[in-house]
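Reviewer 2 asked us to include a model.

Predict the structure of this chain.
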Amino acid sequence: MNTRVAQPDMESVEAHSSASLVDALFERISEAIVSGEFAPGAKLSEPRLAARFGVSRGPLREAIRRLEERKLVTRTPRQGVKVVMPSRQAAIELFQMREVLEGLAAREAAHNATPADVAELRAMLARHAEALSRPDAMVYWQATANSDFHFFVARLSRNQRLFDLLCGEYYTILRLYRMQHRIVPGRAQRALMEHGRIVDAIADGDGELAELLMRRHITAARGGIEKSIRDSAA
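Predicted model (structure tokens):
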């Protein structure tokens, strides 16, 4: 297993509360999983992680428990904790939920977004377009929540429970699927175009169209990921 993780400043983190330390550990380990530093199926050793991050086993176990809740790791008797192995069925189920929930988020965003919100969305897409225009650009990779189109649309829904579901419970596992099955020829530019159409519908206050376009967008993304999973298994 590749256990190299960008070393965080755990000394400063430990000066905060136990909850803050657990939060920091969760973020560091989940990012290592999403980025591929901890490969699918890799076993996570508690002693090694505790030594690497310079923490006790208590907060580390709580962070791992959270990873289990977010479906990023699995725990089995005599085998311990392993990074999840994404499957086609799990991808279908996740994206079916996304289609409904993100469609609702887009509808609500169309009803609640301000002109300033729409301007910020357009500025975000302009940055994405610039990144995709670079010669070495291969994928439409939105690395953080602050740069993620779907995260922002969910926030503009002004529905806290919906936001918590999409951007709390499901966000990290979604990023994992994106990262591991992200190179689908031509998909990046199509996704950017689809994002633009969704923003236009939100700007027009057309909730019905925004929902329809978002659901179609998620369906297309699901098809690409299913194909990537089939190809990788062949």
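The domain at 10-83 is CATH 1.10.10.10 (Arc Repressor Mutant, subunit A). The longest strand covers residues 73-76. We have added this to the supplementary material.
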